[in-house]
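pls ignore typos typing on phone
manganese (II) ion + seq
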Amino acid sequence: MHRIAVIPGDGTGPEVVREGLKVLAAAATAYGFEYETTEYDFGGDRYLKTGETLPDAAVEELRDHDAIFLGAIGHPEVKPGILEQGILLKARFSLDQYINLRPVKLYPGVETPLADKGPEDIDFVVVRENTEGLYVGGGGFLKRGTPDEVAIQESINTRKGVERCIRYAFEYTRRRDREKKLTMCGKTNVLNYAQDLWLRTFEETAADYPDVETDYAHVDAICMWFVKNPEWFDVIVTDNMFGDIITDLGAMIQGGMGIAAGGNINPEGVSMFEPIGGSAPKYTGKGVINPLAAIAAVQMMLEVLGEEQAAQALDAAIAHVTSEKLESLAAGKTGYSTAEIGDMVAERVASV
Ligand code: IPM
Ligand code: MN
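k done
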């Protein structure tokens, strides 16, 4: 029995989560697994009413589940940063979800802005460190608001944190079993301390994985190659900030936020899965948003829950819908309603 916590969140979050759960139900019936869900109302509305983001007691409840399915966080009436830090980052940090796993996969039939590139060229995974670096919040002000103001923002990198991320990436590359190539994305030519630790740890850890080919690229060059030669990549490992940036670029080359999903993984604890796009307030309640990113998040969740067959079926069902049905992935341009897309994927999962 899988116990899944569901946080639909803000804006279009609840609409896409509904479709994700519809597909999960179809997969459970077709593949014979059981699950139960607990819903939580964390998000902008609750914050505006109660001042609460993600209370400590709720974190403890979340910890008691096998996975978390999150819709979207972000409310037009809440100052930027409060919900992101109070809910999303708080969950990632307090549940020690030290990996942010982001597949960049161009499904068949999906339009990419890259000329002459197809699904065979765009299929790699970014392993982003998710609990350290610039996201820790280290630093401070001196003489704030004066002409002599100093602002310091520190990137915190620990040997333990870097190594567990890199080790996960090597294991993942081995398990993925494609080109068995792991590229470290960094900035060793400028960031002498943090990136020195990263590269040394990468090289030392590589000795334990002789079957995995290793490569290194600077983050700026990676941006260039995502556009020019995405086929060069199999798995990429990188720090929190670089990973944040390059995965938005990755999302665009795989067809946009309508399809991009991510997993916040604690390999020894509870992981959280989310469509990586925002809450899209302007489309809220219109039934036009494309739920495939949320459905892809369910697909990743099934993999981590050990429902391999169901996860594969779901991947195939998404590919069927993108190649045979949808006109576009953009909100309002898919040719179907949000619920109809969920229905099509669910039917396909049930029929395999
Ligand atoms: C992401 C988001 C978050 C991040 C924000 C909302 C804090 O951009 O999941 O990539 O920077 O990690
Ligand atoms: Mn981001």
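Residues 84, 88-89, 244, 276 surround 3-isopropylmalic acid (ligand 1) (CB under 6 Å). The CA atoms of residues 184 and 320 lie 33 Å apart. more later
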